[in-house]
Amino acid sequence: MDRxxxxxxxxxxxxxxxxxxxxxxxxxSSSPTDDDAGSVDGATPTDHDVPDSAPGDAADIPFCxxxxxxxxxxxxxxxAWPLSHWDSNTQLAALTLTMPGEDGSGHALHVQEPGDSGxxxxxxxxxxxxxxxxxxxxxxxxxxxxxxxASPILFNIRLNSSAAGVAFIFFLQANDTGSSAVWxxxxxxxxxxxxxxxxQDLGTVVLGAWQHLAFTLTPSTGALMFNMPxxxxxxxxxxxxxxxxxxxxxxxxxxxxxxxxxxxxxxLVCDESP
Length: 274
Hints:
Helices cover 5% and strands 41% of the residues. It is built from 2 helices and 15 strands.
């Protein structure tokens, strides 16, 4: 991400410099914020536009070196992945680490639908603790989609509350109409999720193009600040407020099943504030 894009993102999200610099590291070899390695974790910016492959770049500190509730830059190619970052997975054979990543080097997660009748290829993690604010950022790229209408969910978050079992849902999907496709964001409580007023078309899905996603969600006030540069940016209020939030379920992948979908993910990081 260049400085102008970073400045725009920080301005949109206000205090969400913790989004633009969420990973607290000086390398950012797969990060969209390579030009400014400032950090909410207290690190001093040291990466001054030095190419990631060049000698002298502070390349020894991993993307996920500091604590985050969820972080995966998909550079862990050991046998421990994905359980080194996630609680569980489905259709692991359809989840592969491929090169290059979002920045043109490193790895990204490739999700290719197997086209069978089994479970969808997804990664899941649950964070159990009270929270009031959730911030996330990630890079996504759709490489192939079916010729017929389908709307797979790519990024899915469920906020669970002890208050009468209420849950707040946030998910991003790519909605293919057969002739074009748009990014669609859906938010709301489990009870009203089917209400179409909770869904919003964001902009056109361009095949083979990386898109950066950043958002801050405050369920206790029903507020959402959202940014996909070049696609959509908005500050949305008036969503159904839900509190307390006791746990959060994260899921990425492709759901429902369709063999033509091919999607890449990179540089995923999420943090919760108590």
